[in-house]
Amino acid sequence: MVILLAGALPYPDPRRRCAARRAAEELIDCEPWPGDDATPLEISQLALLRLLYLQCEAHRCTRRQREAVALLARAAVETAITGLYWLYGEQDIKPASSENAKSFRRLMAPLADGESISEEMIEEVAATIGSGRGLPSLRDMAELVSERSGRDAAGDLYRRVYIPLSTFVAHPSGMALLRHVAPEDELSEAPSSIWSRRAALHAADACMGLLALELAEQKERPAAMLTRYANAHMKRTIAPLAILLGGAMRHNLRPHRLARALRPMAELWRYYRSGRAVLDPYPEREARINELLLAVLVAFGGEGSAAEEAIARHYAAELARSADAPDRGSGGEHG
Questions:
Q1: Which of 206, 83, 92, 219 has its CA nearest to residue 156?
Q2: Phi and psi at residue 200, in whole multiples of 5°?
Q3: Do residues 301 and 172 share a domain?
Q4: By residue range, what is the domain housing residue 259?
């Protein structure tokens, strides 16, 4: 709850942001760009340069540009993880050259007409750019960075921020399309909100700060200020799912729904309090708890869907096991 409150409250920090950006800019010393002679450390600096740009663009977004700032934040997470990967995962730039060769093939494929631009020519040019294995998936990058750095920031950003934003914003998945269906099954051109502009800005700020911090440590530069900056924004980066569920709760916690839910909730409490749950055989106990949980979900606007039934079954089993008396062991009756 404290984390959610911290992320929801205003956190004006223009001076701290300017100071962090200046410190980050001082870490970028790879100009002129060395081309094929670049090192993984220099590629990471190039990622930091892009993060500085993405951070600036995110802060230019207005309150009406929630989708745009969410997409910028997702790009910042992807860039930060990639930049961290070059610090911890690669000793040379051959995988980057291989990725460039793959990109070249994809970009040129529509232009191949068999005459002036043949597939053979595209392949020959691609071979001069790079060959061999490319880069791992972003998930594998995040896991490797977390393992080798001893910090879970990369994995945390991937799981809590990147995956939900990919599902709800970047890709036209079923969940993304359903954002255009209002609660009463009415269609809306403007999608429902799954994240706040403030949370997206914290994510962009945190990504820039995290990569700058890691670079500063590797370059043995002072990093105390960057550490405070990155940590302050990381703890204020609320996951999109938390905001989505919070909105659903606000929508469903209406007085009449809460009143309907109180009866099965009170009955479930009495079932445990009276000791009857302990005395009932496990199958009967689980079935009774499942029935009451379904009643609670329906009271809050549920429709008895398969997903709701699966949720009720899961928690009914958990609650039923927790009610076992000490002399019953681990609840072998339901095995």
A1: 206
A2: -65, -40
A3: no
A4: 253-334
Structure tokens given for 299: 């009271």
Q: Give 187's strand partners.
A: 181
Model's pTM, two decimal places?
A: 0.74
187 and 270 together in one domain: no
Q: Which two tokens stand for residue 245?
A: 């569920």
- Low-confidence stretches of the chain (pLDDT beneath 70): 1-9, 114-115, 242-258, 300-304, 323-335
The region that residue 90 occupies, defined by phi over 0 for left and psi between -120 and 50 for alpha, beta otherwise, is beta
Specify whether 265 is located in the same domain as 324. yes
pLDDT of residue 7: 55
CA gyration radius, the chain:
26
| Residue 75: count of CB within 10 angstroms of its CB | 21
The answer to whether 168 and 194 have CB atoms below 8 angstroms apart is: yes
Of 93, 11, 86, the C-alpha closest to 51 is: 86
Q: Express each pLDDT in 121-178 by its tens digit.
A: 888 898 888 888 889 999 999 999 999 999 999 999 999 999 999 999 999 998 889 8
Q: Are the C-beta atoms of residues 215 and 26 closer than 8 Å to each other?
A: no
Q: Assess whether 257 and 241 both reside in one domain.
A: no
Cβ distance 240 to 195 under 8 Å? yes
Find residue 181's DSSP bridge partners: 187
pLDDT at 153: 94
The number of helix segments (H) and strand segments (E) in the chain equals: 17, 0
How far apart CA 169 and CA 60 sit, in angstroms, is: 19
Q: Do residue 82 and residue 185 come from a single domain?
A: yes
